[in-house]
Amino acid sequence: MVDLLVAHYGRLSTAPATGTASRTALEALLRKPFPPGPSDPGEVLEQLQRDVFSHTIFPNHPRHYGWIPGPGNFVGALADLLASGFNVCPTLWLEASGPTEVELVTVDWLCGLCGLAEGSGGLFVSGGTVANLTALAVARRIMLSDEVARAVVYCSDQTHTSNTKNLRILGFKADRIRKVPTDDRYRMDMAALAGAVEADRVAGKNPFCVIANAGTTNTAAVDPLEAIASFCDGAGMWMHVDAAYGGAAMLSERARTLLKGLERAHSITIDPHKWLFQPYDIGCVLVRDARWLAEAFREVPEYLQDVHTAVDPKGEVNLGDYGIQLSRSFRALKLWMSLKVFGLDAFRAAIDRGISNAERAEDLLRATDCFEVVTPAQLGIVTFRLHRPGADDETLNQLNRALIGALVADG
Ligand SMILES: Cc1ncc(COP(=O)(O)O)c(C=O)c1O
């Protein structure tokens, strides 16, 4: 298996970036009944290589620029192997004190990166969706004691859909979620936010939380975080920042100024499997006060009463108290290990390079007359489309769809 991976990484840059097949073709290859007895592991591996891994887009391919990256790294991949091999479960201090300490340290590194002060904390989860869910569940607990009647949440019309899904899960009906309009650069319009909050107050509602974006999925737009923080302070509201993608830009000297105000958030989502170069899956939720996590999630079942520890973030923490999952994998290991092996400066350089790549792509696109830049380079994202003078939108949409189909098909 290690040989297979080494060969894969070795030829990745010259191999196609994409591979796909129809459901019918894959059903024919893979639909089999439960295997009643053992098979040769070598043959299983061969089939995996031939029929499964050949039908995937490789997000860590050097020519893959399709969407928010999943750039992975080899040390992180081996760390995942170790985490599974040692079968580590950092749920209880008793069960995994060393791994728990590694997670606490790595979370503190991210708190520091985001500018959160002493006393902050967090947890590694499966990704941005669950990090946002965890943060919003904490906000509901701390701000509302879980009573959602009359409560209203504000986000922009560019906010990732995981947040609306999560709010639904948490008991907020659609009429309790306000989608605030954005300006010409897709940033939350502050006057519209203030107007919506005021109108809700007058109508007897309870505005309690703003979800701000630090790097939207569509265009990497960053909401005016400083202004939102001051607004939330003044209005007594919770500020959650979805920095799932953009948070990593705190490592970049030139991009960091865009994120000013992130450090004033009550909670933050940042995803190492997006722009901190980790293999799927690893997201992270951070909160200004680590004790809030236990306040929102802690339950002490009878069978664990003897291993339960006091809720002191400085003490011997049971991470199972900090989030939705009880049994959980040692996700922190891949980030901790690759940060130690490569060093933070390597991550900083890679992020700066991503930003430069987006800027260079924009220059190249502007130098041709067949592409139109839709939004300029920001963080690592530039959006564009194939353009034909005089063509209407419907024709252009068809052209662009055909272009994407052709790109995927030829790898
Ligand atoms: C800004 C933002 N938030 C949240 C998510 C959801 O993250 P995940 O897919 O890891 O659940 C994404 C995914 O692209 C995202 O871009």
What CATH architecture label of the largest domain applies? 3-Layer(aba) Sandwich
How widely separated are the two ends?
Answer: 24 Å
Q: Give, in order, the helices and strands.
A: HHHHHEHEHEHEHEHEHEHHHEEH
Characterize the main sheet: 7 strands, mixed
Tell me the fraction of residues in β-strands, as a range. 5-15%
Distinct bound molecules: pyridoxal-5'-phosphate
Radius of gyration: 23 Å
Mean pLDDT: 95
Within the CATH hierarchy, at the fold level, what is the topology of the largest domain? Answer: Aspartate Aminotransferase, domain 2
- Corresponding CATH superfamily of the largest domain: Type I PLP-dependent aspartate aminotransferase-like (Major domain)
Strand order of the largest sheet: 1-7-6-5-4-2-3
Count of DSSP helices? 15
Overall number of structural domains: 3
Number of β-strand runs: 9
Helix percent reads 40-55%
If you had to describe this structure to a student in words, what would you say it looks like?
The protein is globular and about 55 Å long. 43% of the residues lie in helices and 12% in strands. The protein has helices at 2-11, 23-30, 41-53, 74-85, 97-113, 128-144, 161-169, 190-202, 225-235, 253-256, 272-275, 291-297, 332-342, 344-366, 393-409; strands spanning 121-125, 151-156, 177-180, 206-213, 238-242, 267-270, 283-287, 371-378, 381-386. Helix 5 packs across helix 13 (332-342) and helix 6 (128-144) packs across helix 12. It starts with a helix and ends with a helix. Helix 9 links the parallel strand 4 (206-213) and strand 5 (238-242). The longest helix is centred in the C-terminal third of the chain and has 23 residues, at 344-366. The chain folds into 3 domains: 2-66, dopa decarboxylase, N-terminal domain (Up-down Bundle); 80-342, Type I PLP-dependent aspartate aminotransferase-like (Major domain) (Aspartate Aminotransferase, domain 2, 3-Layer(aba) Sandwich); 345-409, Aspartate Aminotransferase, domain 1, CATH 3.90.1150.10. With 411 residues, it is α/β, with parallel strands linked by helices. The strands form 2 sheets. The protein has a 7-stranded mixed β-sheet with strand order 1-7-6-5-4-2-3, with helices on both faces. A two-stranded antiparallel sheet has the order 8-9. The mean pLDDT is 95. It has 15 helices and 9 strands. The structure holds pyridoxal-5'-phosphate (PLP).
